[in-house]
Amino acid sequence: MVAIGGISLPRFVAPSLHRQSFSPPAIGFARFPNRISYRSTVALLDEVEKTGSRAAIVNRKVDGLVKSDCETDFDATLGNGHARNSGKILGVLSTVGNSTNIKWHECSVGKIERQSLLEQKGCVIWITGLSGSGKSCVACALNQILYKMGKLAYILDGDNVRHGLNRDLGFKAEDRAENIKRIGEVAKLFAHAGVICIASLISPYRRDRDACRAILPDGYFIEVFMDVPLEVCEARDAKGLYKLARAGKIKGFTGIDDPYEVPLNCEIVLKNNGGSPCEMAEKVMSYLEQKGFLQA
Ligand SMILES: Nc1ncnc2c1ncn2[C@@H]1O[C@H](COP(=O)(O)OS(=O)(=O)O)[C@@H](OP(=O)(O)O)[C@H]1O
Ligand SMILES: Nc1ncnc2c1ncn2[C@@H]1O[C@H](COP(=O)(O)OP(=O)(O)O)[C@@H](O)[C@H]1O
């Protein structure tokens, strides 16, 4: 661990911190001296307008950009994939679920361009585990480490999203399924935006987690299991909810009278006594680095 500005940071971030300043990068073209200039951007955009496609940018390999397989996958899962799955394509209009006569709009600034801008790859880190297992602490520690490295992450915390988007949902199985589905879809959009999206929610049912995995390209859904026994979570009881559940004042509480299905083949397992949240986040960082998510 190293202590910088009163914040303890794990070893993982120390080398880069020695080399570079802490300030978050400025936004705008000025930040990318090694990238395409404003003048040539305008020229390219003119060409895009003329040809009506993003191919001008992609095929000219500006800044080494090439449309990758993964982007094709993302495009498919975002729009056309759904239309194709619905089996009903009416010329350029599609029917997706109950949405009739809709059309997918393309833009010349795509995932590859955003990745290049952010110097990272968007993905979803899905942290699952019992209440009190340490999901939020790990999510926050991970977010801090990434921020200090100049990487953009965003946390979708079950508790927080239930304050807004999912405020209409309770804790019955179908409400949890809807909660997880919506957060999965939002997380996919963040990943497509190039952001490292950290979803932290109990997500107790395997089927619901697997459905979120299925809407992302292979490798872009990273499931992290907080492997902390119920007794430990209950002893922590940070919010006093286990006590209420044991007293019968909360019904259907995960681990008490509602099931938690342990992941069978997740990417990362964080065991109880595996160290502080920061040390656990360091393990996730190693995975991200090894898989190339910390570069464009
Ligand atoms: N019945 C029941 N079961 C489990 N948890 C409950 C329940 N009622 C309220 N809470 C509080 O809601 C938080 C879990 O919300 P999630 O959106 O993560 O749950 S789920 O994924 O839809 O199962 C959870 O937060 P965490 O402790 O951070 O996990 C609890 O604070
Ligand atoms: N790695 C850890 N080791 C020991 N205690 C922890 C650890 N991570 C979290 N805790 C404790 O557990 C409590 C619940 O953590 P939290 O992140 O809120 O869990 P969750 O989001 O899964 O409900 C916190 O009050 C914290 O003190």
UniProtKB/TrEMBL annotation:
EC number, UniProt record: 2.7.1.25
Family statement drawn from the similarity comment of this UniProt entry: Belongs to the APS kinase family.
Name assigned to this protein: Adenylyl-sulfate kinase
Organism, scientific name: Cucurbita maxima (Pumpkin)
The protein's annotated pathway: Sulfur metabolism; hydrogen sulfide biosynthesis; sulfite from sulfate: step 2/3
Keywords assigned: ATP-binding, Kinase, Nucleotide-binding, Transferase
HAMAP family (alphabetical): Adenylyl_sulf_kinase (MF_00065)
The keyword ATP-binding belongs to this UniProt entry's keyword annotation: yes
Domain APS kinase: 121-271
